[in-house]
Prior knowledge:
The protein is an alpha/beta fold. The protein is built from ten helices and 14 strands.
Amino acid sequence: MKYKCVVVDLDQTLLHEDKSLSRETIEVFAQLPPETEIVVATGRAITRTQRYADLIHARSMICTNGSIIYHQGQVIHRTEIDSQKVIDLIQTVRKIEPVQLTLFYPTKGYTTNEYFINKGESLRLDLDHFETHEIQKIFVVTSNHAAIEAIDFSSYGMKAVPLSENPDIFVVTAEQVNKGTALRAFCDHLELDLSQVVAFGDDYNDLEMLQEAGCGVAMANAVPEISAAADQRTLSNEEDGVAVWLKEHLADFQ
């Protein structure tokens, strides 16, 4: 198989636990043919993704779990949460006790979490007055899982998925958003064949992406569902599993 595109998740996949990127990983990506399309696919917004993309020479980014796709600095695809229904959802979710909310827009976030406000990572969220357009993702943080499960998110055109590393964090996006749909849209735009894509992931939000790619590679630290769905497996993120796999398969790129 000859690959023309590498798609890689960041947290718990490309990055170490301390969010660093190893020199070995950077060097291996530099050895790929210059025409290789390198794509970062992450739950992060562009502001927390760009510097990693630059280090591995990625010209493209799939951000906020597939809500928005960038190619060479331009937005080529986006899917936002319904601006009318989000008001009703927020009114429902804010009644949960305890709860903290963060709204993610393309380049900024607003939160009720004082910790992230004080760190300067997000702006203060006023739940009575907020911009309803261009919301791509919502974090609902609560230990009250029963209250979340009682909400029919599909009635708002949305879905809520817990993070494996912290099940008290529920990621809310438009119902049709996922990294796999975004990968297909990206390949259509660049006229790439999905069979020529190799994708790396570890968590539930990587499932559709690994299924769509010609070769889906699971990290050793991946959740069981990802390991079961993958075509191949590699070492953990702490062991630079992405770099190890790429180094072993450099001859498969053209």
